[in-house]
Target: Site-specific integrase
Amino acid sequence: MKKRANGEGSVYQRKRDGKWIAAIGKRDGSRKTLCFATQREALAAKNAAVVARDQGKLFVTDPSLRDNLSTWVEETIRPTRGIRTYLAYEQDIRLHILPMLGHLHLAQLTVRHLQQLYQHRRAAGAATSSIARLHEVLHHALRDAVRWELVVRNVADQLDPPHRRQEERLVLTPEQLGQLLSVVKGNRLEALYVLVCTTGMREGELLGLRWSDVDLAARSLLVQRTLGSIPKQGFVSTPPKTASSQRRLTLTELAIRALILHRERQEEEQRRAGPGWQEQNLVFCTRKGTPLSAGHLLYQHFRQLLVTAGLPQVTFHDLRHSVATMLLA
Model:
């Protein structure tokens, strides 16, 4: 039997559970061991670790997937992405990825683990688009881990992502948008719907709009923040999604009239609330001046309006695309 060279590392099967162990000596004199289900996976990891060690990229620290993803989503995604993206990533990691894979060390993660995760979610009835998003999250996190030299390869590269089914987006016709505005007339949030139907503003941009952003005399408003809610932290205001999202919009005559009526209505609500009013300069707020939650807007207001108007159950974001389609027509 050929003798191994010094520093070559070793692969052996552990007797108590049949797992395959890849072992390699580090430059600091300690020994790094990783556990795998198959001999093939252990050999591949051992060989990659030898190359990484010889290149000075095999670190003494070996973070768990739980620690890595939890830190990554808070320190990398949250400061650089929109609130919606951060919340989607955080929820996918916390609810779906960590319960199955959180116990693994980062370097132990294999293609087999990802396949098992996706199969588990598929068996639980998850949509293909949801599984594809899990793959997107893991691929992004592992790509950064490779860049930071925490691991030597991105195992998600070796797995084809679940195919997203191309779904046709629902949009409302100009007549249907007019029907929606007719139904919402006189409602305390009428101006919100007028703005989305005439400017295409995003939900978070509308919820974060302040009166100081609105210049009725100049017939314009400035979009410079978005407002969202983060679990256990409450409402958070952040810059718009992209640099181009910070923009000045021209107001139509319909929007100006709606905003004037809305401000009068809000001033009356403030008088009624008395000392209970919490001034935050928000254009769209609760009857006490506090921020409106997206959940309230979507589930308790918008969907009911669609039912009353006899319109398709489009998403609030679809209104934005409806306006874009109408402007391009």
Observations:
- The chain has three domains: 10-54, 65-158, 174-328.
- The mean pLDDT is 84.
- Residues 181 and 194 are 7 Å apart (CA to CA).
